[in-house]
Each structure stands twice: as structure tokens, then as C-alpha cells.
Amino acid sequence: MSRLSPTLLDSFHYYIGIEDDDRAGIARGELLARLRGEKTPPNEAMQKGIDFESNVWHRIGGTYHHEDHKDVYTQCVEGVADLVCSCMPQVHVERELDGVLLHGWIDALGPNVIYDIKTTSRYAIGKYLKNHQHRVYLYCLEGQAPFFSYLVSDFRNIYKEDYAWKPSYKDDLKSSIARWFDYLDTDLEMLKAWEQKQIRDAA
Q: Which segments within 38-125 are labelled E, that is strand?
């Protein structure tokens, strides 16, 4: 059974939505690299996000040392840590839909809510509205965790972007899956990279 993650779906939909040829070429290369399993070093923004989430869990574990950070950064770390301190970290979920196994890793799972920790240089309301993460994870945990919250920090503030399970999310995911496979029929290089990924996943 083919495996699809929300990250892959988001990368694909970002790529096909770009009108500028140069930017589209870069996004396509990044998508191909992801399918091929190529390891690329995180850019500065990505590394800041990795460090922030790591600091959140260190704070919960009592090993966070904030001497190197400004107070406002530490307040953000502590604020997110307070929200997820009773959650299970890094929970893998999966569920079949239309012959495809949707799967991914949840940052923090509480009794009724799924949390995803994000960082950004600039936040606007509804920033993650079109993301597949809340759709996939709420679908995977339908009947168990009906609520999803993006915990977003710009290192100065914390924002919560909340979603609740909607039956329409299932139709959204079906459309996204179909669009992905329809696209593969038109791009032989992408199709080959996808097939190689399935072989690696099955090994």
C-alpha cells in the first residue's frame, strides 16, 4: 500500500500552485529530493524551528538552560511547554484512505487534542488553513482526538490556530490524493522517484 504524509502533500500542492517558473523549479527540485530520500541540511529558519521545539521538550524535562536566550524567547518556550507538558510527544499515526496509507508524526498528543508546534518569522490569522496536517491527523484519529491546534511562535508571541474534525476533511484528502496520482501520470521523473520511495518504504 502506498504511503503518503501530510508533508509530502503540502510540498506538492505548494509546488503546483507556484506561477513563477524559477520558484516552481526550485520547489520541484525540493519535492524530488524529498521523494528520493536525499538528506539536505536545514536552512536557518528550519533550524530555528528545530531548536525551539527541542527547547520546549527540554523545558518540560527540566534541562532547558535559557541563559543564552532573551526573556521573551524563554517566555515563548515556557508558554508552549505549559500547553503540551501533559501530552505524549512524537506519536505516529496512520489510517487508510482510498487505498493509500496516510501517516505522520504528531508533535504532541493530548486526551482530546493534537498539537503541532511551528515557528515563523511572521504570523497571520489562518496561516495554516490549507495545510494537510490537521486534515490528515484528525482523520487518522477520528473518534479519538477531535481537536487540532497549531501552536505557533514568532519567538516574541505565541499564537493558537485551532481546528476541529469536519467530515468534509475526508473529501478534501480524497481530492488531494487523486490530484497527486493524476499529476504523476504527467511527470515521469516524479513518478520514478515516487516508485523508488515505495520500494524503500516497503523494505
A: 88-97, 100-109, 113-119
Residue range 166-192, pLDDT digits in tens: 999 999 999 999 999 999 999 999 999
CATH of the domain at 142: 3.90.320
The predicted-structure confidence for 119-160, as pLDDT tens digits, reads as follows 999 999 999 999 999 999 999 999 999 999 999 999 999 999
Mean pLDDT of 101-120: 97
What three-state secondary structure class fits 8? Answer: helix
Please say whether the dihedral angle defined by the alpha carbons of residues 71, 74, 76 and 81, taken in this order, is positive or negative.
Answer: negative
Count of domains in the chain? 1
3-state secondary structure at position 6: helix
Alpha-carbon distance 93 to 85, whole Å? 20
Determine the structural domain holding residue 33 and report its residue range. 2-202
Kindly report the backbone phi and psi dihedral angles of residue 69, in degrees, each rounded to the nearest multiple of 5, phi listed first. -120, 150
198: cell is: 515505495
Element (H, E) at 80: helix 71-84
